[in-house]
Write the C-alpha cells for this entry.
Amino acid sequence: MEAIREIVEIKSNQLQFTLPTNFNEEKVEMILLPLAKSKEMVKIHKNRSMRGALSKYANKNLRKQEKDAWANAVEEKYATH
C-alpha cells in the first residue's frame, strides 16, 4: 500500500492536487487534517513523557503487594505441595 502525504492550500473551499503517474488505484480514502492542529499534536506528543499516564488505573490497595508480587507468583506456581 502506498500513502501520499501532501500539504495543500485550500482556496474557495476547494483543494487540488495531482497524483503521481504510477498511482493506479481506483478508490482512495482521504483524511483531511487542519495543518495547525496537526502541528500542535506533534508538539504535545514530542514534549510529553508517558510517566504516570496510567496512574488513574492504579489500585492503591494493591501497591503494598507490588514489591513481592513477582516472587510470590513464581513461588505459588512452582512450589511443590
